[in-house]
Structures are given as structure tokens and as C-alpha cells.
Specification:
Layout (H helix, E strand, L loop, with lengths): L41 H4 L3 E5 L5 H14 L3 E5 L1 H9 L2 E7 L5 E5 L3 H9 L1 H9 L3 E5 L6 H9 L3 E5 L7 H8 L4 E4 L5 H5 L4 E3 L20 E6 L4 H9 L7 E4 L27 H9 L1 E5 L19 H8 L3 E3 L4 H6 L9 H13 L1 H14 L5 H13 L6
Helix pairs in contact: 2-15, 3-4, 11-14
């Protein structure tokens, strides 16, 4: 029976592992039964296989890291292509029976958004029945419906929820956490609320060792400054106000809404016909070809939550892992982890920091080296080990 990206584990026989190897994996669109994580029988309840589902957005990078790490640790991993299913059903068209003036047959969307989402997640039930995962890791899980989680829970799958939007969307995530046996938070600000529901732990951002690494010695940087992220209006205003004249800047990501006369367009590869979306491999390559980077949080995500974020974002961890010096939009965890890298409070101050770093390559390289050392243990492989220990009820060191 074919499986997607399946890797058998040691001691596996007829799809199962020996009892002492009982472990599990996880990712985006699935759930499991709300069984207690008891120390005495945790290994029997934890999985010998895992099920993974994720949409193709930024959370896909998180999912890929977990999937790779768990497989590398000997776990059997299968992925359900939820992103493809969502696109397929959302793009389905039906003829109306009318003919347009151009002679073309008129079509309409066959399904509304809710119907497309329902049909996209429906096959998870058959996939779970076929593959028989003991543990299902839900990365983000924003497309998971209560009815689906209830069924998966009734079938005694263990659900691990990996949040990606704390603290800004904790209201929704707390509802999903009611179905989880274990919740892993990307920001621990509201961890007490999750622990009122069930087991919850802080799981910091991580990097993929196969993707995020420094450039080889002797590499000549191409860009003076690089930033990859969505061009939200708050970020457009920020970069407009930075003094970056004369610098070779690379802006990557979705910057489609830039005005036609915006000077920022010169720093992107956006055209009227295409965006500048780059996958995580190319993002890391851009970092390795740059002298400096920057992390700028969008203010749109903080409506009603100003100042609540405590944890580092993934961009900081990935830039540090790639050996890139960067200016920081301050947060408490970032201040603790990266005291060697400067933070800013205004666009003008950020511009001054970039120019200082460009003028002091030796100090810039030394600080970047210390930043990389600070994130040495923040890999998905190490996080996967910690998850397996949590599921086995062994001591963890997060």
C-alpha cells in the first residue's frame, strides 16, 4: 500500500514497531483522541507512525522541519497534501450554460469557500483509517473542524497541536486546543490559559540544518541588506522611512500592492504579472548572499494585542543560523537571546544601524558568529527529540 513520504522505523513489522520503539510524529491538519498522557503507559499510547498535513503557506516551513526531523529520528511519517486539496476544490469550476460575447462558455466557481474546505479535509478520515497513525501533529490546524476532531478523537488518535499564531490568535487556537492531548506554543504569553485546558509547553522557533547554514568561506555578498516577508502596509511605511539610498537592497516576498511609483519596487522582482514569492531554500540563499538583514514585525497582527508578543519569530532564528548579522525589532526573548545584535525603535534608527554594520565588517561578523552560536540547539531535530520525550513523559530541557 503506497504512502506519501513514508519511512519505516527500526523494529517495524507489519506496519508496527517493537514496543520499546513506540514513538510518534505530527503536522497540520489532523487530530486525535483526548487520552491522558500517563507515565506508565505513554509509550503504548504514543505512536509508531505519524500523520502530517499542512497548507503551502509560511507554516509549511514549520511542517517541513518537523516532518524531516521526525523521519530522521526513525519515525514513520506520512503527509496528507492538504494544500493541494484546498487548491483543487477551491479552483473547481462549473459551466453556467451561458455563452459569453467572445464565444467562450461561461463558468462559475463550483464550490464556496466553506464547501471547498470541507471537501479538502474530508479525506483525512480515510487517510487516518488507512495509515492508522497513533499520533497526529496539527501544525496550525486553522482548517480543522470540530466535527473532524471529534471523529479522530473517538478513533483514539492522539492529537498534538503545534500553534503558529500565538498570542495574536489565541482565542481561536484555544478552541482547537480543547481537542488536543498536548499543545506546543510558539509564544508562551498565554500558556496558563492552555494549561487550564490540558498539557501545554512552549516550543521555540527552530531552523532546518539542511537549509539554514552560513555561506562558505570567501563568499562575496551580493546585497547590502535583505528582508524577506510580506509587504504589509506597516512594513511598506517602515522601509519608505529608512535611509537606504545608495544601498543594494533585496526585498523578497509578496509586495504586489506597492504603488507603481514606489521606490521600493526597485528592490523587488515584483512585476504586474507575478509576485516575488520565494521558498525557504531560496530565502536562506538570499541571507547567505547578504551583508546585513533586518527583522520587522508587522503591526497589522497586533490589533488589540500591542506589545503582547514575547517570543522570537522564525525570521530571527533563520537569519542567525545562516550567519547573517541583522537589526532587531525588539521582543523580550530576542533581547535575551541576541544581546550581541542591536535593536531599533524607529525606521530612521534601523537605517543608521544598517549603515554602521556595513561600515564595520569585522564587528558585524563577530556579532553574527555569536548569534549563530546562540541558536545552535534550536533545530527541528532537537525539538523533535523533546517532543518524543514529552510523549514518553521523560524529562525535557526546553
Amino acid at each position: 500500500m503506497p504512502h506519501l513520504r513514508t519511512r519505516p522505523g527500526p523494529g517495524q513489522e507489519c506496519g508496527r514497531r517493537s514496543p520499546r520503539a513506540l514513538r510518534s510524529h505530527v503536522s497540520e491538519a489532523e487530530g486525535g483522541s483526548r487520552l491522558p498522557l500517563r507515565g506508565g503507559d505513554a509509550r503504548a499510547l504514543v505512536a509508531y507512525s505519524s500523520r502530517a498535513v499542512t497548507p503551502s503557506w509560511s507554516v509549511a516551513d514549520v511542517f517541513n522541519g518537523w516532518s524531516e526531523a521526525l523521519a530522521a529520528l526513525g519515525e514513520q511519517v506520512e503527509e496528507y497534501p492538504l494544500d493541494a486539496a484546498l487548491r483543487f476544490f477551491n479552483n473547481a469550476l462549473a459551466e453556467t450554460g451561458e455563452v459569453r460575447p467572445c464565444g467562450c462558455r461561461e463558468v462559475r466557481k463550483y464550490l464556496d469557500r466553506d464547501q471547498a474546505a470541507r471537501l479538502a479535509v474530508d479525506p483525512i478520515l480515510s487517510a487516518a483509517h488507512r495509515f492508522g497513525p497513533d499520533v497526529i501533529l496539527c501544525t496550525s490546524a486553522f482548517f480543522m473542524q470540530p466535527w473532524l476532531l471529534e471523529i479522530l478523537r473517538a478513533r483514539r488518535h492522539k492529537i498534538v497541536l503545534l500553534t503558529t499564531e500565538s498570542p495574536y490568535q489565541d482565542d481561536y487556537q484555544l478552541k482547537v486546543a480543547e481537542y488536543a492531548d498536548l499543545t506546543l506554543l510558539n509564544d508562551p504569553v498565554n500558556i496558563g490559559l492552555y494549561r487550564d485546558i490540558g498539557p501545554a509547553e512552549y516550543m521555540p522557533q527552530a531552523y532546518r540544518e539542511s537549509v539554514h547554514y552560513p555561506p562558505p568561506p570567501g563568499t562575496v555578498p551580493e546585497y547590502d541588506l535583505a528582508f524577506v516577508g510580506t509587504g504589509f502596509p506597516s512594513r511598506v511605511r517602515f522601509f519608505d522611512q529608512m535611509d537606504l539610498a545608495g544601498l543594494n537592497v533585496r526585498l523578497g516576498g509578496l509586495w504586489m500592492d506597492l504603488p507603481g511609483d514606489s521606490p521600493l519596487r526597485d528592490w523587488t522582482t515584483v512585476t504586474d504579472e507575478s509576485d516575488d514569492c520565494v521558498d525557504n531554500h531560496e530565502v536562506a540563499a538570499i541571507y547567505r548572499r547578504s551583508r546585513t538583514g533586518i527583522n520587522v514585525y508587522r503591526t497589522e497582527s497586533e490589533d488589540g494585542h500591542a506589545g503582547e508578543g514575547w517570543a522570537c519569530g522564525p525570521r530571527e532564528i533563520e537569519q542567525a543560523a545562516c550567519g547573517l548579522w541583522f537589526a532587531r525589532d525588539p521582543r523580550p526573548e530576542s533581547d535575551e537571546l541576541f544581546p550581541m545584535l542591536p535593536s531599533f525603535t524607529t525606521p530612521e534608527e534601523a537605517g543608521d544601524l544598517i549603515r554602521w554594520a556595513l561600515a564595520h565588517p569585522g564587528q558585524r561578523a563577530a556579532a553574527a558568529g555569536r548569534a549563530r552560536a546562540a541558536v545552535e540547539g534550536r533545530t527541528f531535530t532537537e525539538h523533535a527529540r523533546q517532543l518524543l520525550r514529552l510523549l514518553s513523559r521523560q524529562p525535557v530541557t526546553m
